[in-house]
Design goal:
Layout lengths: L13 H13 L12 E2 L7 E4 L1 E4 L3 E2 L15 H10 L21 E2 L3 E4 L8 E6 L14 E7 L8 E6 L1 E2 L1 E6 L2 E7 L6 E6 L9 E7 L17 E2 L4 E2 L2 E2 L3 E6 L5 H5 L5 E2 L3 E3 L4 E9 L7 E4 L5 E6 L2 E7 L6 E4 L7 E11 L4 E3 L5 E4 L7
Length: 368
């Protein structure tokens, strides 16, 4: 399976694949193709798997299938397998597979406005004065993010470690709205930590921990608790347990577009210092009556997800191997289309927004 921890997109040579099918059939065996038709893990349905450590599956669920994610016959594999089966079973005459469907090239999207997550929590469900952090499942939340917030007192003169016991799956750590680091969870190290540096501007900063559910495991698990998301126990700051938490539920579901209408949107400047978790918004125009499938390139972006016309097309990550997001034709329309991007974090803070756009292309792109 492709995963955001893995560097390479998985493929299998068409001839090798067909020969494997032929070998099984020659022994009077049965074949189940995994997969025959490539799919897409839209919204937050990607799931995860386990190979000594947790791995989040990519949004694209097409591992070089005979029929691609966008519904096209693979250029060589489809006919190679057809011919292999035909050596052992009678196959009715079949017309030549159709050429790949046309793909839409809708240009490059420049983002004109942004909104800081921490400044726009009012549309979401907020719980106050919570003594111990609560996991997603006990908040009756299946997907998305949960924000855990509290106050640090007298954090003045020295670096202190922040310990997060049983944090699953990925946490963005912020002090007074400024990203301090990212913590990713693995079973090998259930207690994760990050060293925090005091802020010169405030001895009593607000601590925010934005935890993302990156997908529940769909295979063998070392323990049952691996599929619970969020924070289970009290974090420690130095030697002190932290309590008095405010918890904000951020499912980022189909209500998000309406919620975002109440955000305090600000104009994008071309040289921005991105120090927090941000939403971006733009409008792009399609001039044809019936739009085509397309792929949206996320190069130069960090980690997050994208909605188009209110439909969540899935997660993206600068780690790869997936560099493009499949955009099905049915979510597009003639005229104005709205795109909303949430970027929880990125490697570099100073960015040039002229270079940080998103471009529609006609095929999937993968890291080398």
């Amino acid at each position: 399976l492709d995963g955001f921890r893995r560097k390479k997109h998985h493929t299998l040579d068409s001839q090798d694949f067909a020969e494997s099918v032929e070998k099984i059939l020659s022994l009077n065996g049965s074949v189940n193709f995994y997969m025959a038709f490539g799919g897409t893990n839209f919204q937050f349905t990607n799931g995860g798997d386990w190979e000594l450590v947790y791995n989040s599956i990519t949004t694209s669920y097409d591992y070089d299938a005979m029929i691609t994610e966008s519904g096209d016959a693979h250029e060589t594999k489809f006919l190679a397998v057809h011919d292999a089966i035909g050596k052992y079973f009678p196959i009715p005459p079949m017309p030549t597979p159709p050429s790949p469907s046309p793909k839409g090239l809708y240009g490059t999207i420049q983002f004109d406005s942004y909104a800081d997550l921490l400044e726009n929590l009012h549309p979401f469900n907020i719980l106050y004065n919570i003594n111990t952090p609560i996991q997603f499942e006990y908040l009756n939340q299946s997907f998305g993010y949960v924000l855990y917030s509290t106050q640090l007192n007298n954090f003045i003169d020295r670096i202190e470690p922040l310990f997060l016991p049983w944090m699953q799956d990925r946490a963005v750590i912020l002090l007074d709205g400024i990203i301090q680091g990212i913590i990713g969870w693995t079973e090998k190290d259930p207690i994760t930590l990050i060293n925090l540096h005091p802020l010169k501007t405030n001895p009593n900063p607000r601590l925010d921990i934005l935890v993302e559910n990156k997908g529940r495991c769909c295979g063998d698990l070392p323990t049952f608790g691996c599929n619970f998301k969020g924070m289970k126990d009290k974090p420690r700051f130095g030697l002190k347990e932290l309590s008095n938490w405010t918890i904000t539920k951020l499912p980022m579901d189909d209500k998000l577009v309406n919620q975002s209408m109440t955000f305090n949107w600000k104009p994008v400047t071309f040289n921005m210092s991105v120090i927090s978790s941000l939403f971006y918004r733009s409008i792009f125009t399609i001039n044809i009556t019936k739009p085509f499938h397309s792929f949206l390139c996320t190069d130069n972006w960090g980690h997050g997800f994208i909605t188009i016309n209110g439909f969540n097309i899935g997660r993206f990550s600068e780690k790869g191997p997936q560099r493009t997001m499949y955009v099905p034709a049915h979510i597009l329309k003639q005229g104005s289309n709205e795109i909303l991007v949430f970027e929880s974090d990125r490697r570099h803070t100073l960015i040039n927004m002229k270079e940080r756009n998103m471009t529609f292309v006609d095929h999937h792109l993968w890291t080398d």
